[in-house]
Amino acid sequence: MNVVVLLGAPGAGKGTQAPLLAARLGIPVVATGGLFRAAVRDGTPLGLEARRYMDAGQLVPDEIVVKLLLERLGRPDAAAGVILDGFPRTDVQAAALDRALADRGSAVSAAVLVDVPAEELIRRMSGRWICRAAGHPYHEVFSPPRQAGVCDLDGSELYQRADDQPATIRARMDQQLGALGQVIEHYRASGVLRVVNGLQEIDAVAAAVDAALADAGVTAAG
Length: 222
Ligand code: AMP
Fold this sequence. Notes:
Layout: E1 2-7, H1 14-25, E2 29-31, H2 32-42, H3 45-55, H4 62-73, E3 81-85, H5 91-103, E4 110-115, H6 118-125, E5 128-131, E6 137-139, E7 158-159, H7 166-190, E8 193-197, H8 202-215
Parallel strand pairs: 1-3, 1-4, 2-3, 4-8
Antiparallel strand pairs: 5-6, 5-7
Helix pairs in contact: 1-8, 2-3, 4-5
The structure holds adenosine monophosphate (AMP).
């Protein structure tokens, strides 16, 4: 079972790399942010509770996130492994994941940090827009839609998530970079941390991720 953790600050490019890597390894991406947004859309009790934190640019409490993640890991399509995007975000979450995997005779295979400096992150993040219908992502500078404010794929309106607006981004980065540091140290201590340079073209980052995984002994078959 391959359990690959992708680490990086918001906007570092994890969300771009995760599906590319999933296709190469043949295992699904589990993104806690996406699971929460689905719960919010569906209006579930968990979604309603999570929304208060998300809109304020804060982390959802560990207990709620861990519950959601463990439920997702129990589904059949996760049996061969998963790529985790956006989890763990705190050392408490990292320790909970280690325990849950140890119960199954498994462990995190590799934690790959996509490393990007803070100033560049703010520049990237504040231009992000997504569509109402399906959450298709755009960026004012890096991948603008053909027509401003309209999704190329389904024609729905584009909007900025409350947590992609600049003031929220600052608050969220201050909080999350601190917690991310703890998670990085957690995996450094267990020897599975690999760092790739996120200031490269998408293909070059993907190649660096592959090299890092090979170094950590992760292969498509494993
Ligand atoms: P993301 O799409 O990963 O940027 O996540 C969007 C929001 O969902 C975050 O700003 C948090 O409020 C919440 N969230 C997602 N994953 C986690 C996590 N592992 N721990 C705490 N909150 C999370």
